[in-house]
Specification:
This protein has two domains: 2-156, 3-Layer(aba) Sandwich (Rossmann fold), CATH 3.40.50.450; 162-333, Metallo-dependent phosphatases (Purple Acid Phosphatase, chain A, domain 2, 4-Layer Sandwich). It is built from ten helices and 15 strands. Strand 4 (75-80), helix 3 (94-108) and strand 5 form a beta-alpha-beta unit. The longest helix has 15 residues, at 94-108. By secondary structure, it is α/β, with parallel strands linked by helices.
Length: 334
């Protein structure tokens, strides 16, 4: 386990799963320190927002840090223990209640990969209302710290999955404009793509990116082990700057012009950037055309513009592969 706090130096946190300890600090016992000890045997990052030294406290920096690591976390652990002290001018756990509603909306209700684990002690006033509201969505609420921690540990120990995406074009105003992406700025676009990515992909997952990644400075903010299939932007850039290929190889697990991958059902798929380069005798995953077409007679567009600006899972690929080959009629492909 490696601890992350608001005063930790900047580094790349993409190589391990992150658990964020969300819950009350003011008026609450220091349950976060206990959680750090209880997770010490796992190869994960633990983001603890509690500061040992509150001198020179900067609210803007604290909120920015919490927002970043809540967005980056694979698991958010909400534990609301009994109050141990009154704090003048504020209700107990008032910020935690807001964050709980915020992250349930961002994760559970959007059916993302990120997991929110909720534990509330029976002594907490207001628990019954929260439980009642979450029961309608079949969201469990644990009553003890031990139960909450055990669920968090099980999620952190779960195995990785496989995802596919393409044409993120991080940092590109041209892509945002020509593809009519629904963002007011490149910064907003990049932030949304990063959040959507990390909501789906965990640190131990594999991601096959089928080209036109964009700004390489974004790579450290993304979960998963990323395999890059070269897109036309990377290919053209390498022709102008041969050193770029080595830079790409430092950023990604591997860099290939195309690849053949065996899915978990034992069937192969061909990974390429352009639809024109698809194999006629195989099922293909491609990008390049942004949102102009979702499916072909033997392939699926995995680009972000065709998939709600997020990577799609191997299960999604298998679903569409079956639909394309066995269920869609000719009207789909006209």
């Amino acid at each position: 386990m490696e601890l992350i706090t608001p005063v930790s130096p900047e580094r790349d946190y993409a190589n391990k799963k992150i658990v964020f300890l969300a819950g009350p600090i003011k008026g609450a016992p220091d349950w976060q320190s206990q959680a750090v000890k209880d997770l010490a045997d796992l190869d994960v990052y633990v983001a603890n927002p509690r500061r040992e030294n509150v001198q020179n406290f900067n609210l803007d920096m604290q909120v920015d840090w919490e927002s970043r690591f809540l967005a980056s976390a694979d698991v958010i652990m909400f534990w609301i223990p009994p109050k141990v002290a009154d704090v003048a001018g504020r209700d107990y756990a008032q910020t935690s209640r807001f964050e709980l509603a915020e992250w349930m909306a961002k994760t559970h209700y959007n059916h993302t990969r990120k997991q929110v684990v909720i534990g509330i002690d029976d002594a907490f006033f207001g628990k019954s209302y929260i439980v009642k509201r979450l029961q309608t969505e079949n969201v469990p609420v644990y009553s003890t710290y031990a139960e909450t921690l055990n669920k968090v540990r099980s999620l952190l120990n779960s195995g990785g999955r496989v995802f596919f995406t393409s044409d993120t074009h991080f940092g590109s105003s041209r892509a945002m404009t020509l593809s009519r992406r629904p963002f007011i700025s490149v910064k907003e676009m990049d932030t949304a793509l990063i959040l959507n990515w990390n909501n789906e992909v965990a640190s131990d997952d594999l991601v096959y990116h089928l080209g036109d990644f964009g700004d390489l400075n974004i790579r450290p903010y993304l979960h998963g082990k990323i395999h890059l299939i070269l897109g036309n932007y990377e290919t053209d850039a390498i022709k102008e700057n041969a050193d770029l290929e080595q830079q790409l190889k430092k950023c990604f697990a591997d860099v290939l012009p195309h690849n053949t991958l065996t899915l978990k059902n034992g069937e192969p798929v061909y990974l390429t950037h352009k639809p024109s380069e698809c194999k006629k005798d195989m099922f293909n995953l491609f990008g390049h055309i942004h949102g102009l077409r979702k499916v072909s007679t033997n392939g699926l567009n995995v680009g972000v513009d065709a998939n709600h600006f997020r990577p799609i899972s191997e299960d999604d690929v298998l679903f569409f592969k079956n639909a394309i080959l066995n269920h869609y009629d000719y009207e789909v492909f006209l």
